[in-house]
Amino acid sequence: MKPQQQVIHFPRLDTILNVEEIIKKAEEPLSKNEIDRRLQKKIMRPTLNLILQYLKESGKIADLKEGIIWIYKEDVSEKLRSKLDKGIAVM
User: Fold this and answer.
1) CA-CA-CA-CA dihedral for 19, 24, 27, 31, to nearest 10
2) What are 69's strand-pairing partners?
3) Facing residues of 62 across strands?
4) In the predicted model, is pLDDT for residue 12 greater than 60?
5) CB environment 13-41: b (16+ within 10 A), e (fewer)
6) pLDDT one-digit tens code per residue, 38-60
7) Mean pLDDT, to the nearest integer, of 1-11?
8) Which end of the chain is more exposed for a tag (fewer CB within 10 A), N or C?
Protein backbone atom coordinates (compact mmCIF):
# COMPACT_ATOMS: atom_id res chain seq x y z
CA MET A 1 0.00 0.00 0.00
CA LYS A 2 1.31 3.45 -0.83
CA PRO A 3 2.22 5.47 2.29
CA GLN A 4 0.34 8.62 1.22
CA GLN A 5 -2.86 6.67 0.48
CA GLN A 6 -5.35 6.77 3.36
CA VAL A 7 -7.59 3.75 3.62
CA ILE A 8 -11.14 4.60 4.61
CA HIS A 9 -12.43 1.03 4.77
CA PHE A 10 -10.49 -2.23 5.08
CA PRO A 11 -12.00 -5.29 3.42
CA ARG A 12 -13.26 -8.24 5.43
CA LEU A 13 -11.57 -11.61 5.05
CA ASP A 14 -14.59 -13.18 3.35
CA THR A 15 -14.55 -10.41 0.73
CA ILE A 16 -10.85 -11.00 0.02
CA LEU A 17 -11.46 -14.74 -0.29
CA ASN A 18 -14.41 -14.15 -2.65
CA VAL A 19 -12.28 -11.95 -4.94
CA GLU A 20 -9.50 -14.58 -4.86
CA GLU A 21 -11.95 -17.32 -5.81
CA ILE A 22 -13.41 -15.33 -8.72
CA ILE A 23 -9.97 -14.64 -10.18
CA LYS A 24 -8.78 -18.21 -9.54
CA LYS A 25 -11.77 -19.78 -11.35
CA ALA A 26 -11.64 -17.42 -14.33
CA GLU A 27 -10.55 -19.00 -17.59
CA GLU A 28 -9.50 -15.67 -19.10
CA PRO A 29 -8.13 -12.36 -17.77
CA LEU A 30 -10.73 -10.28 -15.93
CA SER A 31 -11.21 -6.54 -15.74
CA LYS A 32 -12.00 -4.84 -12.43
CA ASN A 33 -15.54 -4.26 -13.69
CA GLU A 34 -15.97 -7.96 -14.45
CA ILE A 35 -14.69 -8.95 -10.99
CA ASP A 36 -17.16 -6.50 -9.45
CA ARG A 37 -20.02 -7.94 -11.54
CA ARG A 38 -19.21 -11.50 -10.42
CA LEU A 39 -19.16 -10.67 -6.72
CA GLN A 40 -22.30 -11.73 -4.84
CA LYS A 41 -22.33 -8.50 -2.85
CA LYS A 42 -21.08 -5.21 -4.23
CA ILE A 43 -18.06 -3.47 -2.77
CA MET A 44 -16.69 0.02 -3.17
CA ARG A 45 -14.01 0.45 -5.87
CA PRO A 46 -11.31 1.61 -3.40
CA THR A 47 -11.91 -1.58 -1.40
CA LEU A 48 -11.55 -3.71 -4.54
CA ASN A 49 -8.39 -1.80 -5.46
CA LEU A 50 -6.94 -2.48 -2.01
CA ILE A 51 -7.70 -6.21 -2.31
CA LEU A 52 -6.13 -6.37 -5.77
CA GLN A 53 -3.07 -4.48 -4.54
CA TYR A 54 -2.69 -6.96 -1.66
CA LEU A 55 -3.04 -9.97 -4.00
CA LYS A 56 -0.52 -8.50 -6.42
CA GLU A 57 2.03 -7.73 -3.69
CA SER A 58 1.63 -11.24 -2.26
CA GLY A 59 2.38 -12.78 -5.67
CA LYS A 60 -1.05 -14.28 -6.29
CA ILE A 61 -2.20 -12.21 -9.27
CA ALA A 62 -0.71 -10.34 -12.20
CA ASP A 63 -2.29 -7.21 -13.64
CA LEU A 64 -1.71 -7.49 -17.39
CA LYS A 65 -2.83 -5.33 -20.26
CA GLU A 66 -5.48 -7.98 -21.03
CA GLY A 67 -6.74 -8.05 -17.45
CA ILE A 68 -6.09 -9.65 -14.08
CA ILE A 69 -4.99 -13.29 -13.91
CA TRP A 70 -4.21 -15.78 -11.12
CA ILE A 71 -0.50 -16.77 -11.07
CA TYR A 72 -0.02 -18.39 -7.63
CA LYS A 73 0.90 -22.05 -7.88
CA GLU A 74 -0.36 -24.02 -4.89
CA ASP A 75 1.55 -27.17 -5.82
CA VAL A 76 4.86 -25.31 -5.48
CA SER A 77 3.79 -24.18 -2.04
CA GLU A 78 2.87 -27.75 -1.08
CA LYS A 79 6.33 -28.94 -2.12
CA LEU A 80 7.96 -26.18 -0.12
CA ARG A 81 5.72 -26.89 2.86
CA SER A 82 6.62 -30.60 2.81
CA LYS A 83 10.33 -29.76 2.65
CA LEU A 84 9.97 -27.36 5.55
CA ASP A 85 8.05 -29.99 7.54
CA LYS A 86 10.81 -32.52 6.91
CA GLY A 87 13.45 -29.99 7.95
CA ILE A 88 11.59 -29.15 11.13
CA ALA A 89 10.97 -32.81 11.99
CA VAL A 90 14.70 -33.64 11.71
CA MET A 91 15.74 -31.01 14.25
Assistant:
1) 30
2) 62
3) 69
4) yes
5) eebbebbbebbeebeebbeeeebbeeeee
6) 999 999 999 999 999 999 999 99
7) 69
8) C
Q: For residue 4, name the pLDDT band (cuts at 50, 70, 90).
A: low
Closest CA to 51 of 65, 64, 36: 36
Q: Is 30 helix (H, G, I), strand (E, B) or coil?
A: strand
Q: What pLDDT is recorded for position 74?
A: 73
- Specify whether the CB–CB gap between 15 and 55 falls below 8 A: no
Every domain of the chain and the residues it spans = 13-90
Contact by Cβ (8 Å): 40, 53:
no
Helix (H, G, I), strand (E, B) or coil at 67: coil
DSSP E strand stretches across the chain = 61-63, 68-70
**CATH class in words for 13-90:** mainly alpha
* CB-neighbour burial class of residue 51 (10 A; exposed 0-12, middle 13-18, buried 19+): buried
